[in-house]
Amino acid sequence: MTQLQIVGRRSSHFTRLTRLFAEELGIAYEIVPIFDMTERAPQIYADNPALKLPILRAGEEVVFGTENICRALADRAGAADEIVWPERLRGTLSRNAQELVWHCMTAQVQIVFGTVVSKLPSDNVYFEKARQGFEGALAWLDAHVAEALEALPANRRLSLFEASLFCMIDHLHFRKTVPVEQYASLQSFVRAFGERPSAQRTPYQFDVPPASGR
Ligand SMILES: N[C@@H](CCC(=O)N[C@@H](CS)C(=O)NCC(=O)O)C(=O)O
Question: Ligand 1 centre and the CA of 106: distance in Å?
């Protein structure tokens, strides 16, 4: 079988979600780091024209988008039916919960890429509103996570909801954009999910370029 490459960053929550899926599904992969997110050549992003990461490379085939990558990995493992994908979520609360996790992940990218990487003023309304919406979404998730977890099928192998929620909350300990410690239900979920070997094998860390590199 072709050696799979996940082109991304060990410090990225979207990349971690794909790595976590690969680990859970027992799929071997190599991580190919993108050291500098300000690069603008599509080749750096495995030819993703959107200049976003992660990307899954399997020989000549490239897969764009975190959810697509998770699905491609599950297909390879023959385990797609064992995963609770968003379309299997029943009820508005569960669907809203997934939406807010995606929202938080995107807000985190907006704040980190805007204020940390691009050094734009963090008191601009663009970032202040992002932080306010982020905090509102976290408070909502904290209040509803128990119900959202309860609604998942008991016999699941993994759900995209839990995996994405874990990667998102744990990233807030690594890249401290908005406080997260006060959300007791979210913290206890992260502690429990963090026991999984897949979580322990994919800790956040900054990729260090080789000394002779860029
Ligand atoms: N829709 C994309 C979003 C991925 C994303 O935002 N990735 C971040 C890194 S965590 C990124 O590419 N940041 C660089 C940028 O926004 O220019 C996906 O699902 O993979």
Answer: 8
What average pLDDT does range 13-23 have in this prediction? 98
User: Ligand 1: does its nearest atom lie under 6 Å from the Cβ of 202?
Assistant: no
Ligand 1 centroid – CA 52 distance (Å): 5
- Residues 49/102, Cβ–Cβ less than 8 Å: no
CA gap 149, 143 in Å, rounded: 12
- Statement to judge: residues 168 and 108 lie in one domain: yes
Instruction: Please say if the pLDDT value at position 169 is more than 70.
Output: yes
Instruction: Say whether both 115 and 69 belong to one domain.
Output: no
What CATH number should be reported for the domain holding residue 49? 3.40.30.10
- Residue 13 and residue 105 in contact, taking contact as beta carbons nearer than 8 Å: yes
